[in-house]
Design a protein that fits this description.
This protein has 1002 residues and is mostly helical. Helix content is 60%, strand content 5%. The longest helix is centred in the middle third of the chain and has 21 residues. The radius of gyration is 36 Å and the shape is globular. The termini are far apart.
């Protein structure tokens, strides 16, 4: 009992103990109820000091939950990420008997994370070259470890500080279908980054999981009084005092606790009439923040206790007394007493194994900030010296301490080792971040730059290149004479690869060409660089120049190298030849084996399926493209090549746009448009979203606008044009020669339909120049017809004729079905513009047939629409109107509402008796097929009988017969054969899911 004087009277100073758990009974019940029904995902959120950790701690002490072997981990506030560090450290601290665990060979991938378990873990498996596959395998292995350890509840505190790999691991755990493990995560919502993976977990709860989100709020006055009383031996606290403190601390439990302790230290608590009260408001001051309260309380301790607090704040993790003694520089016997004083103060806490740390991160930060900067650096240096003696060395924390100590040499050493650990574990994103920091620090050693650059995992690199600092750093080293030729070539090659992967093709190709003189004795690297320079999208070289680089690469590929390296070169050569429209590409592709003996070889085969499938799609060989892409997708899924998997999916989306498989296409494209770190993939998905919205009619259309005008402008084109412009600008900015072609053509079509022919022509000038300079006329497929129309519209018929002649010459002797169909369309546009309506109708008829053969129904219908217009202009009204009716039905069946509306008004303008287009309310389909009729006729086109159609659609045969009869009436025919002919002419295709030999749409 202490006494002091106040106004000449003795005054009692209270003893202060740790507070009881108060005010959270409802929240505790929700948490325990959720954990009692696994698997559960419980998210506990609230501001700093609100009691998240205390709530979780109380729940874990419940007997039923404690029996489920909870494992608690803490995310430290370090910049240097340690691959899965919080979970790995928690598993290590649990000290399992690894030799007795029923681990599968998969657990061998954990060796880099747990080197001290080396003798008990299975052998390390072969290295996977695909970053996504390596990462997924690591996640499966760590999840297996937790499972065999019997962990039923995984707790992760302060997830707002978690590294990206840890967050992705949590998402992986939450998505496992067979899991029984529950997750409890605590975080401060205000500190979660907007694009953090945690947002995906908090916004989309895992299916089949008991999902609970607990938001902790402030204590009210009564709860504040209860907490204060629990700290003061359970004695009563006056309501006035509790109200005063609740108001000053905003009811934050940690702030209340720190204020009570500080008021006690100041002797500001007075006992009157059997209760604790405050002195008068004029005489008492509550610090405005928890940090201020902690700082003032710490300053009241002895100097040696303050030194221990400073050491603990620098370490920022639980440590034993010996480490505290080393870091603080105090003798062991002095440290022991100082630690006891700090624990009594309530600032430090001690765990079950005797390790000491701050009870709250805010308190640690307050002490850290008030420590003089020179003292902090010295403490960090001593922390590094102490932690270096540990086995295994905590390399990420060592990098952190040496950075803060200002010891650049030691920081480089441990940051590189942390990056090496991340690479060995398949955590390429963490490695990229660390290597990026090493490469962009001021004045790095040239030899180290070469080594670090070669370690950079290029496929995980997207996003950083746009910041420019890394490319500037690498070029800065390249501009010096400090690098040996071999190192200079290695840095240039890696810089070129980074730029190419990020879509900066022109800049990347330039670096590769500069590297070639230094690549003597490196046949694969030299051949790879030559192949890359032979890739048409990369530069504005002509096709002849590309071919010369490819031929040089083929010669270099005969030199000694591994089978996987030679396979990669063959894939690159086939890809480039097909990109140029060179038939030799198919012969090269035929050299590829059906399988490979190594994971790297299998990845190359999956890549070949993507690249050659994409080439087949560009050529117009759609069935072949689908087969190649579907096979590649299966390989990517089997071997977990995540990046290739996503690229194949977006290519299939593009193929489905061409072939008219539009059901669900918008949703698939939208999902791919948000894939992180893949800019080219995102742009392709955005392009399809824009094209599809323009065809089907977007939600941005003005419902009050004139229907005819909406049909011309493609209602809702604001969003469509913005997306098309985004893709076009990105392609031009990145130097990807072929990427701007399709969005430029789509924008030009919109402008030409609006009557802005000059703008339409200007949009096609760049693509036409690229095609002419490169002499790759395959690339004219998308923009050639609209450019021809724009030249005629601005009264440049001679240029239009010359352009079409050049296109015909460029395609002569080549078997390029899509480009040939575009050429026939151009001939029709040219003849129509020159008033040769009969010739134009014939050309558009040939174009319609060519597009159908691919099949590309939307373009076929557009060509048929132009044919109908030419027939009407030539005076053949009956044939023209009949063609328009079939075209309108075809557009409707396809879902191309914008085009169907346009044709509807064209028919009405031509005097045809047409029904009003339905625009809401209870729908009558008039002379158009209803959706249910369309399902029936598409199955009929596959050759199914009425009973078979009925079984496929779960309808009665009588209903199917009635719907077929209705379709015959609408098309004016009396037999199934005649109906099939009319449907085919209208562009309606068989149902792919039931057609013989139909490929999978995924």
């Amino acid at each position: 009992m202490e006494r002091s004087a106040e106004e000449g009277l003795p005054r009692e100073l209270p003893s202060v103990s740790a507070p009881r758990f108060v005010g959270r009974a409802a929240e505790l019940r929700r948490l325990t109820d959720a954990l009692a029904q696994p698997p559960a995902a419980v998210l506990v959120e609230g501001e700093a000091g609100i009691g998240k950790s205390r709530l979780v701690s109380e729940a874990l002490e419940e007997p039923g939950i404690a029996a489920r072997r909870p494992l608690a981990a803490m995310c430290p506030p370090f910049r240097e990420a340690h691959t899965l560090g919080p979970v790995v450290d928690a598993a290590r601290d649990a000290r399992p008997d690894v030799a007795e665990l029923a681990l599968t060979p998969l657990a061998g991938v954990l060796r880099p994370l747990f080197p001290e378990w080396g003798q008990d873990l299975p052998p390390a498996p072969e290295v996977l070259s695909d970053a996504g596959a390596a990462r997924h395998r690591l996640f499966r292995a760590l999840a297996e470890l937790l499972d065999v350890m019997g962990v039923g509840v995984l707790v992760l505190e302060d997830v707002h500080w978690a590294d990206e790999a840890t967050l992705d691991f949590l998402l992986f755990l939450a998505s496992r279908r067979s899991r029984r493990m529950s997750l409890v995560l605590t975080y401060r919502p205000e500190d979660v980054a907007p694009k953090s993976a945690l947002m995906r977990l908090t916004s989309r709860p895992p299916a089949g999981t008991g999902y609970v989100r607990i938001r902790l709020g402030a204590l009210d006055v009564a709860q504040t009084a209860e907490l204060m009383s629990s700290m003061l031996d359970g004695e009563h606290v006056s309501e006035t005092f509790a109200s005063f403190l609740q108001e000053r601390t905003d009811g934050v439990p940690l702030a209340v606790e720190e204020s009570v302790r500080l008021l006690r230290d100041r002797a500001d608590l007075v006992r009157r009439d059997g209760e604790w009260v405050r002195r008068t408001l004029a005489d008492i001051a509550v610090p405005p923040t928890i940090r201020d309260a902690v700082a003032e309380r710490a300053s009241r301790l002895t100097p040696v206790a303050q030194r221990v607090l400073q050491a603990a704040s620098v370490l920022a993790e639980p440590v034993g007394p010996a480490v505290l003694a080393t870091v603080s520089g105090l003798p062991n016997n002095v440290v022991g007493r100082a630690v006891e004083a700090a624990v009594r103060s309530g600032l430090l806490g001690e765990d079950r194994v005797g390790r000491v740390s701050f009870r709250h991160a805010l308190a640690a930060r307050a002490v850290y900030d008030m420590t003089p900067a020179p003292d902090r650096r010295a403490l960090h240096r001593e922390a590094g010296r102490s932690l270096r003696a540990m086995t295994p060395q905590p390399v990420a924390r060592l990098a952190h301490h040496y950075r803060e100590a200002g010891d650049t040499g030691q920081w480089r050493q441990y940051a590189e080792r942390t990056a090496d650990l991340a690479l060995a574990s398949g955590d390429h994103r963490t490695a990229v971040g660390l290597l990026h920091e090493l490469l962009t620090e001021s004045d790095p050693p040239a030899a180290s730059v070469a080594r670090w650059a070669q370690k950079m995992p290029v496929l995980a690199f997207s996003g950083l290149v746009g910041r420019g600092d890394l490319t500037r750093a690498l070029r800065g080293v390249l501009d010096t004479e400090a690098l040996a030729p071999h190192d200079r070539a290695a840095v240039r090659i890696q810089l070129g690869r980074m730029l190419l992967h990020a879509g900066e093709y022109a800049a990347g190709a330039a670096e590769l060409e500069r590297a070639l003189p230094d690549l003597a004795g490196e046949p694969f690297q030299a051949a790879w660089a030559m192949n890359t320079l032979g890739s048409p999208p990369g530069t504005l070289m002509s096709a002849g120049e590309h071919r010369r680089w490819l031929d040089r690469a083929a010669v270099a590929a005969r030199l000694p190298m591994t089978a996987d390296q030679r396979l990669a070169l063959v894939v690159d050569r086939a890809t480039s030849l097909l990109d140029m429209g060179d038939e030799a590409g198919w012969a090269v592709a035929a050299e590829l084996p059906d399988t490979a003996a190594t994971p790297e070889g299998m990845m190359q085969l999956a890549r070949s399926g993507l690249n050659i499938g994409n080439g087949a799609m560009r050529w117009g060989r759609y069935d072949e493209a689908r087969q190649l892409l579907t096979t590649a997708l299966a390989r990517a899924e089997e071997h977990r090549y995540q990046r290739l998997h996503d690229m194949i999916l977006v290519t299939l989306v593009h193929l489905d746009w061409f072939t008219g498989a539009w059901d669900g296409l918008a949703e698939r494209a939208a999902a791919l448009a948000v894939v992180d770190a893949e800019p080219v993939l995102q742009l392709d998905a955005l392009l399809i979203m824009a094209l599809l919205e323009g065809a089907v009619g977007g939600s941005g259309a003005d419902p009050g606008a004139d229907p005819g005008q909406a049909a011309v402008t493609g209602g809702g084109t604001g969003t469509v044009e913005e997306r098309l412009r985004q893709v076009l600008d990105a392609g031009l900015r990145r130097g990807i020669a072929d990427l701007p072609l399709e969005p430029a053509a789509a924008l030009a079509r919109i402008r030409l339909a609006e009557g802005s022919a000059a703008e339409a022509l200007e949009l096609t000038e760049g693509p036409a120049d690229v095609v002419a300079r490169k002499n790759i006329w395959l690339w004219a497929t998308e923009f050639a017809p609209v450019r021809t129309g724009a030249l005629l519209a601005v009264e440049r018929p001679d240029q239009a004729r010359q352009f079409v002649a050049d296109l015909a010459e460029g395609l002569d002797g080549k078997n390029l079905p899509a480009a040939d169909a575009a050429l026939e369309t151009c001939r029709g546009v040219l003849a129509e513009g020159e008033g040769r309506s009969v010739e134009a109708a014939a050309a558009f008829g040939r174009a319609t047939a060519a597009w159908k053969r691919l099949p590309r129904p939307y373009e076929a219908l557009l060509a048929a629409e132009r044919r109908a217009g030419c027939l009407l202009a030539a005076g053949d009204s009956d044939t023209g109107l009949a063609e328009l009716a079939r075209v309108q039905a075809g557009f409707t069946a396809l879902g191309a509402r914008t085009a169907a509306d346009r044709v509807h008004f064209a028919r009405r303008a031509a005097g045809a008796p047409v029904r009003q287009v339905w625009r809401g309310g209870r729908r009558g389909y008039g002379d158009q097929l209803s959706p249910r009729e369309l399902e029936v006729v598409r199955l009929m086109l596959t050759g199914l009988t009425n009973p078979a159609i009925a079984r496929a659609l779960s309808r009665s045969p009588k209903t199917v017969a009635a719907q077929l009869n209705s379709a015959m009436r609408k098309y004016g025919v009396t037999s199934r054969t005649a109906l099939a002919v009319s449907l085919t002419q209208a562009g309606i295709t068989p149902s792919e899911g039931h057609a013989t030999g139909a490929g999978s749409d995924l």
